[in-house]
Design a protein that fits this description.
Blueprint: E1 2-3, E2 15-22, H1 25-38, E3 42-45, E4 51-53, E5 57-64, E6 69-73, E7 77-83, H2 88-97, H3 116-119, E8 122-123, E9 126-127, E10 132-139, E11 144-149, E12 170-180, H4 202-216, E13 224-228, E14 234-235, H5 237-246, E15 252-254, E16 260-262, H6 264-270, E17 277-278, E18 281-283, E19 290-293, H7 299-317, E20 326-328, E21 333-334, H8 336-341
Parallel strand pairs: 2-5, 3-5, 4-20
Antiparallel strand pairs: 1-2, 6-7, 7-12, 8-9, 10-11, 10-12, 13-19, 14-16, 15-16, 17-18, 18-19, 20-21
């Protein structure tokens, strides 16, 4: 058994039968084939920043270290092709340093590039789908390599085809991004609205978002966490109208389909749970959306805390929270929402 503690940001001492570092397509195929021959489960991960291991993994964990970036441009756009093992924030930083706008609102989101389309990561009014040109995919079973257009990826809020039809035996090898040269700042969210005109530059927005995130979110290098633990729930207009009557100050974000997105962190905070501790797990004192491992928490400790939060929010608001973090059991991913709904 090999220790996974340094390969996931909750930093719990869980183990896998084998850990393979993947630096080429040949590495990936060999690792998968070895697991198949042994009849063991196979788990492909990036930076482990969106995972909660519930127990030791009884198979092979393959760590994405596929690297490389190419840049092309025409009169209107920059085109980037980035391998999945590249660090997402370092990619954003590279674009800002090269005065290529479009990714700055996604600064300091932890994880690898290959995880971005799976989650359709987003922050401050921007989602991955807004800049995606294509995603390059590899089918582990038949070694087929192919591209999906952004439309074919079926992106939605923290959703994509990679959580459904292409969930098992498919790997994101690389992504293609298309960034307009006629850059327009996205300043519709929170503190960004307060930026003075002279501060509304690509570099200033990047540093402002880094500052906001660093002030609110704990550094995984210091305290174990996986960032936002829950998705922001989306409710119908009628449900929102009823909530608005009871809570006039409730933060809300209208969606294109007429539904309303709520702030999960606000809902949890209104239940008095910011800084709340249960067993060895804790709600972060600065951001209620983040659950942390102060040092000795297990996966089951985090699940117990998440289950308690789910129940409290449901009781107070009649709104169901859904985990953003993937739960990994001994044989692979398990249904995180079903675990939280258990009595």
């Amino acid at each position: 058994m090999q220790n996974l503690q340094t390969f996931h940001t909750f930093s719990m001492p869980v183990f896998a039968q084998r850990i393979d570092k993947i630096t080429s397509l040949a590495d990936l195929q060999a690792s998968y084939q070895n697991a198949q021959e042994k009849g063991q489960p196979f788990l492909f991960i990036g930076c482990g920043s969106n995972l909660l291991f519930l127990e030791d993994f009884q198979g092979t964990v393959a760590v994405n270290q596929l690297k490389g970036l190419t840049h092309k441009e025409d009169e209107d756009y920059h085109y980037l092709h980035i391998m999945g093992g590249e660090n997402w924030h370092q990619l954003v930083q590279w674009t800002v340093e090269n005065q290529i706008g479009g990714l700055e609102n996604l600064a300091l989101i932890p994880g690898c590039v290959g995880s971005a389309p799976v989650q359709n990561i987003g922050a401050y009014g921007l989602e991955f789908k807004d800049v995606c040109d294509y995603v390059e995919v590899f089918n582990l079973k038949n070694a087929e390599q192919f591209r999906l257009s952004a439309k074919e990826c079926q992106f939605a809020y923290r959703e994509s085809i990679f959580k459904h039809e292409y969930k098992d035996d498919y790997i994101v090898l690389a992504v293609g991004l298309k960034l307009a040269k006629k850059w327009q700042a996205k300043l519709s969210y929170g503190e960004l609205q307060k930026l003075a005109p002279e501060e509304q530059t690509l570099t200033q927005i990047f540093y402002k978002i880094c500052e906001i995130r660093q002030n609110k979110l704990p550094d995984p290098q210091v305290v174990g966490n996986a960032g936002s633990f829950f998705k922001n729930p989306v409710v119908c207009a009628q449900t929102f109208a009823e909530l608005k009557k009871r809570y006039p100050q409730i933060p809300h974000y209208p969606q294109e389909n007429g539904e309303i997105k709520l702030a999960a962190g606000w809902l949890i905070d209104q239940c008095g749970l910011k800084g709340f501790t249960l067993g060895n797990a804790k709600v972060h004192s600065q951001q209620a959306l983040v659950l942390i491992n102060p040092g000795r928490a297990t996966g089951e400790d985090i699940v117990a805390l998440a289950r308690y939060i789910y129940a409290q929010v449901m009781e107070k608001f009649k709104v169901a929270l859904s985990p953003e973090v993937r739960f990994i059991g001994a044989q692979g991913e398990v249904d995180s929402l079903a675990l939280l709904q258990e009595k």
